[in-house]
Amino acid sequence: QVQLVESGGGSVQAGGSLRLSCVVSGYTGFLGWFRQAPGKEREAVAAIRTRIYRNLYYADSVKGRFTISQDNAQNTLYLQMVSLKPEDTAMYYCAADLVANGLWYIPHHYKYWGQGTQVTVSS
């Protein structure tokens, strides 16, 4: 059974940093971070293809500010966020197991989701 548990969210001022964690059990493969602000659709933030290739993917809005990584044991996914902006405020979700031929930035192409962790950035 695949389980994803996020943590690390909080409230910071603009320009600050946070590191989100997602403990992953029961799965190794394709993992992603998404976010959803109130009244908006869920959007992709970053993704990582683990195992052999370790490909990384980022949304244009976070390139250069956010870094996705995974620990050597591959049971925790991280999202290091720096230079945070008020527009980064959202619930952040960890997602796992991209469907065959799926696109990393499409939410419904993932099979499993965590419960989310809130990030609030004040100006």
Could you list some keywords that capture this structure?
123 residues, mainly beta, 7-stranded mixed beta sheet, 4-stranded antiparallel beta sheet, 53% strand, globular
Secondary structure blueprint with pairings:
Elements: E1 3-7, E2 10-13, E3 18-25, E4 30-36, E5 43-49, E6 55-58, E7 66-70, E8 76-81, E9 90-98, E10 110-113, E11 117-122
Parallel strand pairs: 2-11
Antiparallel strand pairs: 1-3, 3-8, 4-5, 4-9, 5-6, 7-8, 9-10, 9-11
Number of helices: 0
Helical residue percent band = under 10%
- What is the CA-based Rg, rounded? 13 Å
Structural class of the helix and strand makeup? mainly beta
Low confidence ranges: none
Strand fraction equals over 45%
Report the span from N to C terminus. Answer: 41 Å
* Mean pLDDT level: 94
> How would a textbook summarize the main sheet?
7 strands, mixed
Please give the number of β-strands. 11
Shape: globular
**Pattern of helices and strands:** EEEEEEEEEEE
In a nutshell, what does this entry contain?
With 123 residues, this protein is mostly beta strands. The protein has no helices and eleven strands. The N and C termini lie far apart (41 Å).
Please give a structural write-up.
- By secondary structure, this protein is an all-beta fold.
- The chain is built from no helices and 11 strands.
- Strand 4 (30-36) and strand 5 (43-49) form a beta hairpin.
- The protein is globular and about 40 Å long.
